[in-house]
Amino acid sequence: MKRNVIICTAAALALTAGGPVAAAAAATGDAARAVTTAATARADVTADGAVDAALKHYPGVVESLDQDGSVWHVNVVAKNGTEAEIDVSGSGKATTRDSDTDDDGTEHASLIAAKVDAKQAMKAALAATPGKVTHLDWDDGDGGTPYWNAQIKGSDGQTRSVHVDPTSGKAATAPAQSNDHDGDNDDDGS
Length: 190
Hints:
About 30% of the residues are buried. Helix content is about 35%, strand content about 25%. An eight-stranded antiparallel sheet has the order 4-3-2-1-5-6-7-8. The chain is α+β, with helices and mostly antiparallel strands.
């Protein structure tokens, strides 16, 4: 009887912490495995993994990626200029949200010709500013010099913008930005 209560308690905790995969493992009596399985099942895909999944789903060149919770929104431009918006889930599954086949490719010529791709730009940005990539986009420079713009969230909670040269891969970091929008240095917005 006592063993059944312990197993039921472990299953309830596993359901709270990790969902059905963890609950199934906990019901077998292995609560430690349940928590480990739940953590693995809920692991978020990194920016690098989102790029890989999106390009496998829709071959081309990544124009931008942005994280929204555990989902990555990745814009991919094919070599012929057609575009697709790909969603990559936390488990790494890629699905096409929208596509545009009306473009002739001239709009994205500088992106397609860039020597430094999205993955290389993220690597350069992270080398300049350690943390986690939360956003990356191609900026055509409005008639000037194009560049990659990466948003890196550091371990200190601050977000930094890093510009990466698409030819050399050289990264330049902008000053940190906190989440404090009211200027009182307490990040609570009041």
